[in-house]
Amino acid sequence: MAKERTLSIIKPDATRRNLTGKINARIEEAGLRIVAQKRLWLSRAQAEKFYEVHKERPFYNDLCNFMTSGPVVVQVLEGENAVAKYRDVMGATNPANAAQGTIRKDFAESIEANSVHGSDSPENAKIECAFFFSGIELVG
Ligand code: CMP
Questions:
Q1: Comparing C-alpha atoms, which of 13, 6, 1, 2 is closest to residue 114?
Q2: In angstroms, how far is CA 6 from the centroid of its own chain?
Q3: Could you give the CA distance from residue 41 to residue 78 in angstroms, rounded to a whole number?
């Protein structure tokens, strides 16, 4: 399979607890390469735009509040089957359902404060990576 890229966000609950290095170790141990990374404090408008697909969901407002409550680390991960592989490394959205050894099982606080985001398809990965990074910032 060809190399693929996916967008990862280390969320405010994880940056608050200084877990960026531990999460990056999980990513690298899984064979994914961090080819771009930056720490940001999202504006309300940026969070609303990024999560626009969830606009009609009941949790949208709380999700945007949470994602603007502290710094995030946005990153592009590269590797074979990167989208699906990172979803395995993250575990289920709700940490109560996440498998042993996944990031969310080990670090997430709740379904909202679930430590990490990862793109859900190769098509969305392209859109999400382009939301945060220009081509010149991706260094494989
Ligand atoms: P994420 O992968 O960032 O995509 C949307 C986020 O909404 C999700 O992770 C969760 O953190 C958050 N969320 C909050 N409540 C829910 C819910 N009931 N169902 C799904 N996602 C939720």
A1: 13
A2: 9
A3: 24
The pLDDT tens digits for 64-110 are 999 999 999 999 999 999 999 999 999 999 999 999 999 999 999 99
Closest alpha carbon to 94 in 84, 107, 104, 83: 104
Atom of ligand 1 nearest to the CA of 51: 5
Q: Is 54 a residue of the active site?
A: no
SS3 38: strand
Q: Are 107 and 23 in contact (CB under 8 A)?
A: yes
Strand locations in the chain (E): 3-10, 33-40, 72-80, 116-118
Which residues have a Cβ under 8 Å from the Cβ of 64 and sit 6 or more positions away?
44, 47, 48, 51
Residue from 64, 74, 97, 114 whose mutation best tests the ligand 1 pocket (most atoms within 8 A of CB): 114
Question: What pTM did the predictor assign?
Answer: 0.97
